[in-house]
Automatic annotation (TrEMBL):
GO terms for biological process: DNA transposition. InterPro entries: Transposase_mutator (IPR001207). It comes from Dendrobium catenatum. Keywords: DNA recombination, DNA-binding, Transposition. This is MULE transposase domain-containing protein. One of its GO terms (molecular function) is DNA binding. It comes from the Eukaryota. The keyword DNA-binding applies.
């Protein structure tokens, strides 16, 4: 985030929460902390970030604190939220990244190499499926 932008957002939107994309957070962890068993560390960090409940999140953090205390200290010191279990209620989404462009590109991955007309048609179809699914889900609230 650019200098001053974070403070301006806090002034204009005081109730807004600051989240970070887990993919970018993981890249930062890999740069700062080198470890022998990266797959285990990745599983714990991503497991904590994808946790839906505080209990599940805390369990992963306990494992992190035992196995990787430096990573645990780094994650706890972050001023922004990075786990689904910590996100504000009422804001739901299927991904744990906040970067809309990345999320959208991942969502349309199979359509990206198609000609423009086919690309737009595939996106239209995906949007229709998504809206129908959400409509069905909303009936069970």
């Amino acid at each position: 985030m650019e200098k001053g932008l974070g403070e301006a957002i806090k002034d204009v939107y005081p109730a807004a929460e600051h989240r970070i994309c887990i993919r970018h957070l993981w890249k930062n962890i890999k740069k700062k902390i080198h470890c022998k068993d990266g797959h285990k560390l990745q599983g714990l960090v991503w497991g904590a970030s994808n946790a839906y409940t505080t209990t599940e999140y805390n369990d992963k953090l306990v494992e992190l604190s035992v196995s990787y205390p430096t990573v645990y200290a780094y994650l706890i010191s972050l001023p922004y939220k990075w786990s689904r279990s910590q996100f504000m209620y009422g804001i739901y989404h299927g991904t744990n990244t906040n970067n809309f462009a990345e999320s959208f590109n991942a969502w349309i991955m199979e359509a990206r190499n198609k000609p423009v007309v086919d690309l737009i048609d595939m996106i239209r179809g995906k949007l229709m499926e998504q809206r129908a699914t959400r409509k069905m889900t909303s009936w069970s609230w």
